[in-house]
Design goal:
alpha+beta; Nucleoside Triphosphate Pyrophosphohydrolase; 29% helix; eight-stranded mixed sheet; single chain
């Protein structure tokens, strides 16, 4: 069910540029050749889901200071057996990692990002991350055991050492969110 949803989401998604289209095609090839392509055990790469959480104004994003990576990142992670949709996996991860109630997820991906993990249990594997925009109705978060910290940052003023993929994700969100 989750595998089929991922294929459907990626087939209907209109990539915003040639680089994203190349990634979209790569993800679809991966899923076509790997029935287990959604799971952490699939090597050398597997699909993951993440969420750029923005506040109700659309001006700020909640980032995690990731324990393993040691950098500010969007919320997200591996798909789990109970997940039935890719956007649902991103929503679950955002809820688990932030403690924020009442989050809503845009079912269309915001961006794709393929990255090699350098540390942790998946070191040496590539994450084929499908990144979604998630909106929060409250800003009172709870730091989970997966994070050293959580913090709200303006979308257009992320910490200086923020990964380029998170910067790109924030820029895409800033262009997609209606401005007041």
């Amino acid at each position: 069910m989750l595998h089929g949803d991922a294929v459907e989401v990626l087939e209907r998604w209109h990539a915003p540029d040639a680089e994203q289209e190349e990634l979209r095609a790569h993800y679809l090839r991966h899923l076509a050749t790997h029935p287990d392509g959604m799971w952490r055990s699939c090597r050398p790469e597997h699909v993951t889901a993440s969420a750029l959480v923005v506040d109700s104004t659309g001006q700020n994003t909640l980032l995690t200071l990731h324990k393993t990576v040691g950098r500010w990142l969007q919320l997200g992670g591996h798909c789990e057996p109970g997940d039935t949709t890719l956007s649902g996996a991103a929503l679950r991860e955002a809820t688990e990692e932030s403690g924020l109630p009442g989050l809503t997820v845009n079912r269309e991906p915001l961006q794709l990002s393929r990255h090699l993990l350098q540390a942790g249990g998946c070191a040496g594997a590539y994450h084929l991350d499908v990144q979604f925009l998630v909106t929060a109705t409250t800003t009172e978060y709870v730091v989970s055991d997966e994070s050293d910290d959580l913090a709200w940052f303006p979308l257009n003023a992320l910490p200086a050492d923020t990964d380029t993929s998170v910067q790109s994700l924030s820029t895409r969100a800033n262009h997609q969110i209606p401005q007041p």
